[in-house]
Specification:
Radius of gyration of chain A: 37 Å
Distance between the termini of chain A: 15 Å
Largest sheet of chain C: 6 strands, parallel
Chains: A mainly alpha (501), B mainly alpha (214), C alpha/beta (301)
Order of helices and strands of chain C: HHHEHEHEHHEEEHEHEHH
Oligomer: heterotrimer
CATH architecture of the largest domain in chain C: 3-Layer(aba) Sandwich
CATH class of the largest domain in chain C: Alpha Beta
CATH superfamily of the largest domain in chain C: MTH777-like
Number of domains of chain C: 2
Radius of gyration of chain C: 23 Å
């Protein structure tokens, strides 16, 4: 009876959700339920991962134990063997072969099997945990974030390079510092590509910029050179440029690494401040009170007021622009960074972070620039785990699957025979399909029967033999499932009714 | 290219070659690569699951969406060991039942719509095809006849396997068997093609890496 | 004579398994060193020109028509459901599509239902950018393309994307939760705001192709749907070719090559295809040869 009630309950749930989905009702409740199902599914995968690691650990323990036993057995059995041999020798005067003693001694084959199992399990555990931990910790985060920023927000790198140029006593006298900044940025990172605005500010066209990079020159004295696009730099200055390039990269990565936690906390502070607003505070002009941003017990005075002012401005702008009900998700973090002084305020307060080789003002400016751009890039999924995927997982998976080619070719060579009826049909279909896929057959078909879609046209076997078969199998299997479900339903709820026990 | 890039490419090439050594004979390096693959893929998937779904869920909960704690707690029940004899261990079936209910409920309409209704609809095609001038198109007609015969005979094959039937159904089923064998051969050819392209890509990858290195 | 054939057959049947791969390797190396990089062998005078003879079918033309008719500055959704096992087959096609969409300033939102799909999308984007004929100077994340991340559950993911896009849209792969409103996603509130949905796939979810379950849960929303699948997945996708679930299917390497050739001839897929044809002829020859070898063997009764 309990089973019937439970089955009925499950069936009722399935039918309810089925009806809601089939009829296309888009209810919030259903959306939430499906979203929850997603979360539970992922947690089930995670539980599977944890259990898998646990199972491997127990496998290691078992293999280790067996191995230990095998070594101790070997010693004991050798001793027994020696004693028994001595006894026999004493009795018979001859050395006899001892019957069935090999069974007691664990063969080297079984021992090596245990060693192999132990090592396999150990490698699995070590690699799984190492991948997970490294992906979680994301070592060298600053460098990955730097690479992402260079790709997505190149003005950060150019701005940093310009600050270094301006702070250098010799290079600050260079006539085209912005061009030099672009040149150094391109040298620091191969992912650097200046935007149109940056090129315009530097007074250089895209072609000249590309020529500058390929010819490795910078303009020094335009009077000496007729060709405006040609540029050059002194060997002495080149040495300074190389030094600046090293400093730019090191300082950028260092500032990013140090400021990254600040940037994350700043975003969290913004999110929690916005989410704590009440609806009437959004709608009306009432004063909003927001606490200052605090990181590592250091409060950025005035940051709360800055956010309040920005909110007030945004409310007015959104109200006049959209003239509809304001909601919390209309207030965007990127807008706040771009239209307020928050990044300068935060970088001012945390100017002790970052490289000491930079002057303080430059550090503040670079940090502020980073705060404006940094949070749009990914810390974790674009980080070290990407290296693991591209250089370990991808080659391994693709190589293992490519290895299947060998077994398939072996099958083709050994099994595809015309002697047996089934294999004959399969072989002929296989050969004809492969022939139809070749370039040469396509040329032949085009020459001799260009408008023919019937037998022996390229792709005919798949389209007119295989596809109908797959359709029929789909119809058959789904009809079969339907009947199977009906049978279970009948046997659960109706079998046994009316019969006396 | 920085040292990380170089080290990565070198690792990739070495691992590819180690796996390809399995072509010749199973060796300790190959087995190491197998174990490494199992471990790394498990770890990678765990990282992606965590950062894609679990961490954002926790963050949503911290930002005030308390309802999201329900699936989180329900999911944590799945961590209870299966051989646990305690009272609460029965609750581990609840999240599993929830997943089954939702998955079935979402899949059933899709499955029957896609595999039953639509397959029947697209299988029913005109027996004779005519062009815009009213002339019979022989090639398309032959294709239609073959397709209809394929569908019906394959269905008969599935029915004929279940129980002994009349000679007619059995013989039609044999025609269906012929079609199924052709479909198997054709599908095998496409699968081989897929592996071949992958193999070609891997060889080129090794050659390109060797070129860059040397 | 029979004895001779039997001895020869026995000798040939002892060819090691890996020896069967050697001609394939030779063909690949030949193509690489003679056709792709002829300057490696200095005696080679000119690049060997290879022609592509496979004509596009009606289905291929339909797909090209849909892509060419996509409005400028619109946005498309690409579901990336393949991993390293089909990368060499599908990545070229995806990067060709990205290049052609970028030329029309069409924004791309990626999403994936498998963990491997995350990096597959980025590697295809990087391949597109490296392409010499890529029309855009910069292709920036958040502005020109974005990634909505990994959506779990197969059919559940399809349901969420099709019916409750707001749940998915707010999620950026890189920040996990809401509040990164990227410029690309402005104006996209539900799935019908996209001008097309593409799927690149090398697997099914619970036996159902991803785009099929997506289309089945879409209900009355009209949006062009095109599936690209690898050769081994063709048997799963091709039954749906003329159904209302897909508006177009590019399945198998043959169709993918035609697509690449038509949409982006500079990729020169015909070179790879010619080598493939040669290897296919080798395999056909192997089958014939194997049967000849078997003739000499006695049937085991």
């Amino acid at each position: 009876m309990k089973n019937k009630i439970f089955s009925a309950f499950i069936l009722l749930c399935i039918i309810t959700v089925f009806i809601i989905i089939s009829c296309g009702f888009e209810s919030v409740l259903l959306t939430k339920t499906v979203r929850w199902a997603e979360i539970v599914i992922v947690l089930s995968f995670f539980a599977g991962f944890v259990k898998f690691i646990g199972r491997e650990f127990s496998s290691v323990a078992v293999s280790f134990k067996k191995l230990k036993e095998s070594f101790s057995e070997k010693k004991t059995t050798s001793l027994i063997k020696d004693i028994t041999a001595d006894v026999l020798l004493h009795e018979t005067g001859k050395k006899n072969k001892l019957p069935n003693m090999q069974n007691l001694v664990q063969g080297s084959g079984k021992r090596s099997e245990n060693i192999s199992k132990l090592l396999n399990s150990f490698v699995i555990i070590a690699s799984a945990l190492a991948t997970f931990i490294l992906g979680f910790i994301n070592p060298n985060q600053g460098r990955y974030t730097f690479d992402n920023i260079v790709r997505e927000q190149p003005d950060f790198l150019a701005h940093t390079a310009l600050l270094f140029i301006e702070s250098d006593p010799n290079l600050s006298k260079f006539p085209s510092p912005k061009k030099l900044a672009l040149y150094i940025s391109a040298d620091v990172s191969t992912d650097f590509f200046p935007s149109e605005e940056m090129l315009k500010n530097a007074g250089i066209s895209l072609e000249s910029y590309q020529k500058l990079l390929s010819e490795n020159k910078i303009m020094k004295n335009p009077e000496l050179h007729n060709d405006i696009g040609t540029t050059f730099i002194n060997p002495n200055e080149m040495k300074l440029v190389k030094e600046v390039k090293e400093k730019v990269k090191a300082a950028s990565v260092e500032i990013i690494s140090d400021m990254f936690p600040v940037a994350r906390e700043l975003k969290d502070w913004f999110d929690s401040s916005i989410s704590s607003l009440k609806n009437d505070e959004l709608e009306s002009d009432s004063e909003i009170k927001i606490t200052d941003f605090v990181f590592s017990d250091i409060a950025v005075e005035g940051s709360g007021a800055e956010l309040e002012n920005w909110l007030a401005g945004e409310k007015k702008l959104l109200f006049y622009e959209i003239n509809m009900k304001l909601t919390k998700d209309m207030f965007r973090y990127n807008n706040f960074l771009a239209n307020s002084r928050i990044s300068e305020m935060v970088s001012e307060k945390f100017s002790f972070l970052g490289s000491s080789m930079l002057p303080l003002e430059s550090k503040k400016q670079i940090a502020a620039k980073f705060l404006e751009t940094g949070i749009t890039t990914s810390p974790e999924i674009k980080g070290f785990i990407r290296w693991i995927y591209r250089y370990i997982l991808d080659p391994l998976l693709s190589s293992f699957v490519a290895l299947l080619l060998l077994s398939m070719i072996s099958t083709v060579y050994t099994k595809f025979s015309i002697k047996n009826y089934s294999y004959r049909i399969i072989t002929i279909a296989f050969v004809l399909t492969l022939t139809g896929l070749t370039n040469q057959y396509a040329l032949f078909a085009q020459k001799h029967f260009p408008d023919w879609h019937g037998p022996l046209a390229p792709g005919w076997i798949m389209a007119d033999f295989a596809v109908p078969v797959f359709k029929a199998l789909a119809i058959g299997s789904s009809a079969g499932i339907l009947f199977f479900v009906a049978e279970i339903f009948y046997s659960t709820f109706f079998v046994g009714i009316g019969r006396k026990k | 290219m920085n040292i990380f890039g170089n080290l990565g490419a070198l690792t990739a090439v070495l691992l590819t070659l180690v796996v390809f050594s399995g072509f010749f004979r199973q060796n300790p390096l190959y087995r190491f690569a197998e174990s490494l693959f199992i471990g790394v893929s498990a770890g990678y998937f765990a990282v992606i699951w965590y950062f894609s779904i679990i961490k954002p869920t926790f963050q949503s909960a911290l930002h005030g969406d308390l309802l999201i704690l329900i699936p989180l707690i329900a999911g944590l029940l799945l961590f209870i060991p299966s051989n646990s004899a305690r009272l609460y261990s029965r609750f581990r079936f609840l999240p599993a039942a929830f997943i089954v209910i939702i998955t079935l409920a979402v899949n059933i309409p899709i499955y029957f719509n896609a595999f039953l209704k639509e397959m029947i609809r697209t299988s029913v095609i005109p027996l004779f095809a005519f062009d815009s001038n009213g002339n019979l198109q022989i090639d398309v007609t032959i294709n239609s006849l073959l397709s209809i015969l394929a569908v019906t005979s394959t269905l008969m094959f599935l029915v004929a396997r279940h129980r002994r039937h009349s000679n007619f159904i059995y013989r039609t089923g044999e025609i269906g068997r012929f079609y199924i064998l052709v479909a198997i051969g054709s599908a095998f050819a496409y699968t081989l093609l897929s592996r071949l392209i992958l193999f070609m890509g891997k060889i080129e990858f090794i050659i390109n890496a060797a070129k860059i290195r040397f | 004579m029979k004895n001779f054939i039997r001895n020869v057959s026995y000798f040939l049947s002892q060819i090691p398994r890996w020896g069967l791969i050697i001609p394939i390797l030779a063909a690949i190396l030949f193509r690489y060193f003679m056709i792709e990089n002829p300057q490696i062998i200095p005696e080679q005078k000119a690049e060997k020109e290879v022609e592509f003879h496979i004509a596009p079918t009606e289905q291929d033309m339909k797909v090209l028509e849909i892509i060419n008719s996509l409005p400028r500055n619109s946005k498309v959704l690409i579901l990336v459901n393949y991993g390293p096992e089909s990368r060499y087959e599908l990545e070229t096609a995806m990067s060709a599509l990205i290049v052609s969409l970028a030329e029309k300033n069409i924004g791309i939102a990626f999403a994936t239902m498998i963990p491997n799909g995350i990096e597959s999308a980025f590697m295809a984007v990087e391949k597109s950018i490296e392409n010499g004929s890529f029309g855009k100077e910069r292709f920036v994340y958040g502005h020109e393309y974005t990634h909505l991340g990994f959506i779990v559950g197969g059919s559940i993911a399809s349901y969420l994307i099709a019916n409750n896009f707001s749940e998915v849209r707010e999620r950026d792969i890189f920040d996990g939760i809401t509040d990164i409103r990227q410029p690309l996603m402005k104006g996209i509130n539900e799935i019908s705001d996209f001008s097309a949905v593409f799927e690149f796939s090398s697997q099914t979810f619970d036996g159902i192709p991803g785009l099929v379950s997506f289309a089945a849960t879409l209900h009355e929303k009209e949006i062009p749907k095109i599936a690209f699948c690898s050769s081994d997945m063709l048997p799963a996708y091709i039954p749906f070719q003329n159904s209302y679930y897909f508006d177009g299917l590019v399945g198998g390497f043959r169709s993918l090559s035609v697509f690449i050739h038509e949409i982006h001839p500079s990729i020169k897929i015909e070179r790879q295809y010619s080598t493939l044809s040669a290897i296919l002829f080798y395999i056909i020859g192997l089958v014939v040869f194997a049967n000849f070898v078997n003739l000499g063997k006695k049937d085991k009764r």
